[in-house]
From TrEMBL:
It holds the Pfam family HisKA_3. The chain crosses the membrane at residues 36-54, 66-98, 104-120, 148-165. Residues 306-396 form the Histidine kinase/HSP90-like ATPase domain. Keywords: ATP-binding, Kinase, Membrane, Nucleotide-binding, Phosphoprotein, Transferase, Transmembrane, Transmembrane helix, Two-component regulatory system. CDD domains: HATPase_UhpB-NarQ-NarX-like. It is an enzyme of class 2 (transferase). This is histidine kinase. One of its GO terms (cellular component) is membrane. Gene3D superfamilies: 1.20.5.1930, Histidine kinase-like ATPase, C-terminal domain. It catalyses: ATP + protein L-histidine = ADP + protein N-phospho-L-histidine. Its EC number is 2.7.13.3. The keyword ATP-binding applies. One of its GO terms (molecular function) is protein dimerization activity.
Amino acid sequence: MRAVRGRADNAPVSQARELADRVVLATRRIGGARDAMLVAAAVLALLAVVEAGGRGDQTGMDLGTALLLSLWATLPLMFLTAHPVAVALAITIANAIILGGSEPPFSAGVLAELLALYWLGRTRSRKIAFPFLLPFVLYALGRPDPGFTLLLLLTAGAVLLGAAIRDRGKAVASAAASRATADTLLEHAARGERARIARELHDVVAHHISMIAVQAETARLTTPGMPPDGAKRLLAIGDTARTALTEMRRLLGVLREDVSPLDSGPVRAPQPGLAELNALVDEARASGGAGTRLIVQGKVMPLDPGVQLTAYRIVQEALTNARRHAPGAAVDVELDYTASALLVRVRDNGPGPESSGDGHGLLGMRERAAMVGGTLTVGRSPGGGFLVETVLPIPADETGLLPGGGAVTPAEEP
């Protein structure tokens, strides 16, 4: 058998380059069509037939065999998307027969081979795709001809390109699935936090509505000389308040069904406020084994129970995070009363968590701060350690002492 003969001139290279440019242009035009491979197979088969007929007596292959092999090396491409392994096998066998007969391969057949191997690498594993390179490896090793080496490099590059795109697609899909899962979990956690916050606020709001009902009933029964119309209005106020309490209990039942059954039990204790921060700091100091201080600045004033509950829960969660991520670190809890807002800072001198934007605890603190119109920032403290800071707005008409006569005072550090 004769070796693949090189050409003295650059005519084959120019023809191959022109053919490749035409195929690329055609593929770009029909890339979005369902019959793209059908059109590509028809175009390449036509080019291969023209090339086979134009060879004449330049090779030792008769015209009939050349036409048969040209169609064999290109037409199966129309079934590539449905049967990539079978199509790649058929085209590879056709090109191997041509090379085995010491004939130069058809340029269209080489392009079909590259497309088939690219698609095979893109849709199948490397264990399936790489064996198709074996014939080209054997020809390149057995015949030291630049043409065989170039053909081996092209076919290997087609398989590797398809495999790389396949791996990249899998990585992108996996990342998208991970992001979707994380977003779903985050949304679920947010709903759970909002439900828990609403359940806690239920006690606060229910207390006020109960007081409305009690005060309306007391005024109706104890006010001497009240006109009948006034008594009727007070009775209507009491009835409306009791109806509102009933509807709130129904809403609370819906919220309990929206979270885990472990969290659905009734809470009998009253919701905490700023007056309970001393006990919370004492508990943190006892369990953490390090100094924990409560520092109050500014003029202490009464706050809405919802704002107090929000500040208490944020401090509670921040102290929990400090014990978890910075065990043994000293912690300062600061309350700074200004004319328009309550500033709450929880600062430790430990390393802090690796991330300041994730986690259900931080999500819950953000939800609580946003619920009362406040803001929350977390991150590294300028002086070292980790800082949780929230700004809770105070309505202009809130003055005086804390509810129930309690007052928040700085806790002495032992």
